[in-house]
């Protein structure tokens, strides 16, 4: 779209420089407003609406949809406008409207892997399973799997991490100081997408200085220590062990757990990855206190830490996963508990416990994958069961491996859907 390229170069490129500075300084809302105010709204064309809709796609979804809707109204036959409008409709779960856009788009570009994948997903929600299978086949997963992975992420990846940061900061500034730890941890686990994570020491340092006076002394020390061991890449195992030992945080004589179990979980991961201490040693030191937190404070991060420190003991973590399901209603823990039952031969497709999990967590991909596996054993797979599993898998691409998300399991489910039609 030549008009968009011209706008980006001649108007919004200057805005982008200033907006990026504001965003880096934690003033994202001001950055957003710069884009909106760059041109009087009375002069906006389809290109302006389209450009701004793209800017706000993973920042302000409702605003992005309204802009792309207007762009489509003004230029409904442009394929790029159709693509953005259809994607925004899907993020809003308006599948009936979106499928009409994809059908129109595919008349222009019938071989688009992205549009065929989007049409496949929308078809599931309007109960057109044969169409869903047909569209998926046209996407040619074997050739386009990377494009398909990212196409799915664009719909289901959620808010941009910058927007998440800004939203938490707003809550804190309104008086919710319990969110300060969440904000600072976000800076240390800065996830750009499903496949990459880094840290933002600049954000941490600025936010820490701004909010540390609102933290108690121990919590402030815990977070500062965690930031040091996460962001200082020069620290070897011995340096981490010495540093935390001096701070008496989890290592050394008379060491203590961080006050926040979320900080404890992240600190445990760093200690284990650096091999400063083994899981068994950390478990012997802190299991009782962590278990007390998990049971009396309804502290899910404490339970997650217990699981991390007991990975070698299947019976124990099975009990922890069961607790996570029953106490915290956590779908991931429910799924892992069911996985252990399946391994032991104590779960089948008619089990009440599996039926309960499917009712409680209808969008959990791992639980659906277990259900399909068990149905296959008894040759009782129906298209509706597979369609539900596919819908769940689209949302996270994580039924088999959360650390290496990809669309291969999804492709396998579509093959099964084709067989069951």
What does this structure look like?
- The protein is mainly alpha-helical and 421 residues long.
- Among the domains are: 2-156, Tetratricopeptide repeat domain (Serine Threonine Protein Phosphatase 5, Tetratricopeptide repeat, Alpha Horseshoe); 313-421, Serine Threonine Protein Phosphatase 5, Tetratricopeptide repeat, CATH 1.25.40.
- 72% of the residues lie in helices and 1% in strands.
- The protein has helices at 2-24, 28-37, 46-55, 61-74, 79-91, 95-108, 113-125, 129-139, 141-156, 161-173, 180-188, 201-211, 217-231, 237-247, 261-274, 279-296, 300-309, 314-328, 331-343, 352-360, 365-377, 383-396, 408-420; strands at residues 190-191, 197-198.
- A two-stranded antiparallel ribbon has the order 1-2.
- Strand 1 (190-191) and strand 2 form a beta hairpin.
- Helix 1 (2-24) runs parallel beside helix 3 and helix 17 packs antiparallel against helix 18 (314-328).
- The protein is flat.
- 39% of the residues are buried.
Q: Which secondary structure elements does this structure contain, and how are they paired or packed?
A:
Elements: H1 2-24, H2 28-37, H3 46-55, H4 61-74, H5 79-91, H6 95-108, H7 113-125, H8 129-139, H9 141-156, H10 161-173, H11 180-188, E1 190-191, E2 197-198, H12 201-211, H13 217-231, H14 237-247, H15 261-274, H16 279-296, H17 300-309, H18 314-328, H19 331-343, H20 352-360, H21 365-377, H22 383-396, H23 408-420
Helix pairs in contact: 1-2, 1-3, 3-4, 4-5, 5-6, 6-7, 7-8, 7-9, 8-23, 10-11, 11-12, 11-13, 13-15, 15-17, 16-17, 17-18, 18-19, 19-20, 21-22, 22-23
